[in-house]
Design goal:
The structure holds 2 protein chains of 2 kinds. Chain A is α/β, with parallel strands linked by helices. Chain A has 2 domains: 228 residues, TIM Barrel, CATH 3.20.20; 56 residues, no CATH class. In chain A, the strands form 2 sheets. Chain A has a 9-stranded parallel beta sheet. Chain A has a two-stranded antiparallel sheet with strand order 10-11. In chain A, helix 2 packs parallel to helix 3. Classes of the chains: A alpha/beta, B alpha+beta.
Chain lengths: 292, 88
């Protein structure tokens, strides 16, 4: 279950070392924007040691490497890949060609390290207009791609517009990326809400992202982790309804009935599929029937 | 690995360690300042020696100003300084 992802600067020890205690489902150890060019070497060694020695039990570990148009990304992967992070996040992914270049290099590293080829997954960060338009081909370019991630700040700059709390400027991109990811059969994550002092805004932004179909959302502040987790967890009412749906279908099948209605509404395949997803999420969070 | 120039790594922020490494011609010398010197001084020195051994550094002066860094941080900062101060 990956609802919240917390960005942590890869060059700051006291933020990294408590990464698994902030309530996030995943942490993103950042070697890119949070690290100045003269500290890139220090950050990748620090992040490598932190993953190796601390392990971050109970959270997924994602590492944001530097972009493919920088001289850093291969050294980032050299240090990090042998430690088998859950996912690698390549920034500014703009095309399938970028994913294929990463795939080739990762395959080489996996072979050199005696790891299973293809085991290291990718979470491409889509944050350019070209990346948005190519989202489906990026998501489909390799079996390594497990999800897409929308980056609103760089995208707004590329679109030559102002980034706002309301997010109208990235609305097209949000919907396009959700559709592309779902079409490719991978998960999809929303950009952070960057005003760390606006808790209500963070809640609204997370709830809106969930309503569009995002799987989860990132945060740059531990303060927004709980609101994100709540927004992306099924509510009690949703869970109860999901069990009603599944129970009604089970009973109908036992009675040989083909058409089933619940509270006057017909239950068809998409309703059942949604109910099953809600139940799976609830059970993963310990909120299933057995826990109630 | 020969240290040929002065190199620094880390910061004086809490949870970090500031490392200064410079060439020497009389073996390795470690100077340690830490608020937890009594409790962890020996362990920090041992980690420092270990990293120097790992990179075969035999003649260097290493100054550490520890701000309560974990072992993995101390080792990372010393390694960074070694790689910054070594021969090109």
């Amino acid at each position: 279950m990956r609802r919240s992802m917390l960005f942590l600067p890869g060059s700051t020890p006291n933020k990294i070392i408590n990464g698994d205690a902030m309530g996030a489902d995943a942490i993103i150890l950042d070697l890119e924007d949070a690290v100045s060019p003269e500290e890139k070497d220090a950050a990748r060694i620090l992040v490598r040691n932190a993953i190796r020695d601390l392990g971050f039990p109970g959270v997924e570990v994602i590492v944001r490497i530097n972009a493919l148009d920088t001289p850093y990304w291969q050294e980032d992967l050299d240090e990090i890949v042998p430690l088998k992070p859950d996912l690698i996040m390549p920034p500014k992914t703009a095309s399938a060609k970028d994913v294929r270049a990463l795939d080739v290099y990762l395959t080489k590293l996996e072979r050199a390290s005696g790891m299973a080829v293809g085991g290291v997954g990718l979470l491409p960060l889509i944050e350019t207009a070209l990346g948005v338009e190519n989202a489906f081909e990026i998501a489909s370019a390799s079996q390594r791609v497990k999800a897409l991630f929308l980056g609103g700040e760089d995208l707004s700059a590329d679109l030559q517009c102002r980034r706002t709390k309301e997010g109208n400027e990235i609305d097209y991109a949000r919907k396009r990326i959700v559709c592309a990811a779902r079409a490719a059969g991978v998960e999809v994550y929303d950009t952070p809400f960057t005003d760390v002092n606006d808790d209500e805004g963070a809640v609204r932004d997370a709830e809106y992202a969930r309503s569009l179909g995002f799987t989860g959302k990132a945060s740059i502040s531990p303060r927004h982790v709980d609101p994100i987790n709540r927004a992306f967890s099924p509510s009690t009412a949703e869970i109860s309804h999901a069990y009603e749906v599944v129970d009604a279908i089970t009973a109908a099948k036992a009675q040989g009935r083909g058409v089933v209605a619940l509270h006057g509404k017909m239950i068809d395949a998409p309703v059942v599929a949604r109910a099953e997803r809600v139940i799976a999420a609830a059970e993963a969070l310990g909120l299933g029937r057995e826990a109630r | 690995m020969k240290i040929v120039k002065k190199a620094t790594a880390g910061t004086l922020e809490s949870g970090d360690v500031y490392v200064e490494l410079s060439p020497s011609d009389s073996g390795n010398e470690i100077e340690l300042q830490s608020a937890v010197l009594l409790q962890f001084g020996d362990a920090i020195r041992e980690s420092a020696q270990d990293v120097l051994r790992q990179f075969e550094v035999e003649n260097a002066k290493l100054k550490l100003i520890d701000q309560g860094a974990l072992d993995c941080v101390i080792r990372a900062r010393i390694e960074t300084a070694v790689l910054r101060g070594k021969e090109a």
